[in-house]
Design a protein that fits this description.
The chain has about 300 residues and is of the alpha/beta class. The chain has 2 domains: about 200 residues, Spore Coat Polysaccharide Biosynthesis Protein SpsA, Chain A; about 70 residues, no CATH class. Strand 2, helix 2 and strand 3 form a beta-alpha-beta unit. The longest helix is centred in the C-terminal third of the chain and has 24 residues. The radius of gyration is 19 Å and the shape is globular. About 0% of the residues have low confidence.
Length: about 300
């Protein structure tokens, strides 16, 4: 592992909040990597459980950042700001790395210097049992912007990026309480290919009660992301047409969910967007922000 006297090759960032129940396994999976030229930054996003005391037991093996509770985007961004390496990798605190993860990705970047981002395949574990991802969730590499509009095809825990990529595309959007990874990877994939190592090198765990992706209405945050992207001027004509198509599909689904939950005003807004209301068929991004509350 890198020491304070030299800069590491990789900065590993684990954001966490009130996950003392699984955090040690995540940290240990990083410390057990075959490749050891890294620093491990654990960003505690205002935990009120045993997380701070747990992290103190690791001593100099990790760098701990203690922040006010501002969400996972702010925590990851704080880790990026503190990182000393030219390569950055993320691990969600409920996921695990297999021992060869860092060595395979570092070798990939060394072999192809022009690569800015790559991810690995993953194993899914739900409620302690191995499951197979559905066909639509299977990873793919290359120019994946269009399929990534439907759902997030890049896992933060599987990614490694060159630090300079953030200068091009920006950081995680701290205004999004969920789907912040979907948002960032769209900003990346509309510009450049996302490379894939087809070996599963992470364990992506799910099914636990505090898993954010289980909340209702996550497509609201994906809609906000697409709206921002449409306003950005980054998209080609083909990409823009695809984004509009998926935007209307997602708005129709969310509108139906709003109606079932008695959220008529919100549902009416998404129905208008799905029908192509607004100048050019795209409302201003801030108009959707009215409905972007914490996921529930």
């Amino acid at each position: 592992m890198a020491t304070e006297a030299n800069s590491p090759a990789v900065s590993v960032i684990i954001p966490t909040c009130n996950r003392a129940w699984c955090l040690a396994e995540a940290v240990d999976s990083v410390l057990a990597q075959a490749y050891q030229d890294f620093e491990l930054i654990v960003v505690d996003d205002g935990s009120t459980d045993e997380t701070p005391r747990l992290l103190e037991t690791y001593g100099a093996a990790i760098r701990m950042l203690r922040c006010k509770n501002r969400g996972v985007s702010a925590a990851r961004n704080a880790g990026i700001a503190a990182a000393r390496a030219g390569l950055i990798a993320f691990l969600d605190s409920d996921d695990l790395w297999l021992p060869g993860k860092l060595s395979r990705q570092v070798a990939f970047f060394e072999r192809i210097p022009e690569v800015l981002i790559c991810q690995t395949e993953e194993c899914w574990v739900r409620n302690g049992r191995r499951v197979n991802p559905g066909k639509r969730h299977r990873k793919r590499g290359g120019l994946i912007f269009e399929p990534s509009l439907e759902l997030c095809l890049v896992s933060p825990s599987a990614v490694m990026v060159r630090r300079g990529l953030f200068d091009q595309v920006g950081l995680f959007d701290e205004a999004l309480p969920a789907c912040e990874d979907y948002d960032l990877w769209l900003r990346v994939s509309c510009r450049i290919p996302i490379h894939l190592i087809e070996t599963p090198l992470i364990i992506k765990r799910g099914g636990h009660a505090d898993q954010l992706s289980r909340a209702w209405g996550l497509d609201r945050y994906r809609i906000a992301s697409i709206l921002n992207l449409l306003e950005s001027g980054l998209l080609s004509d083909d990409q823009r047409r695809s984004a509009l198509r998926v935007l209307r599909q997602k708005c129709a689904v969310v509108a139906g969910g709003c109606r079932k939950r008695g959220r008529r005003k919100e549902g009416a807004y998404y129905e208008q967007v799905a029908a192509g209301a607004g100048e050019g068929g795209v409302p201003a991004p801030d108009s959707v922000a009215t409905f972007l509350e914490e996921p529930r």
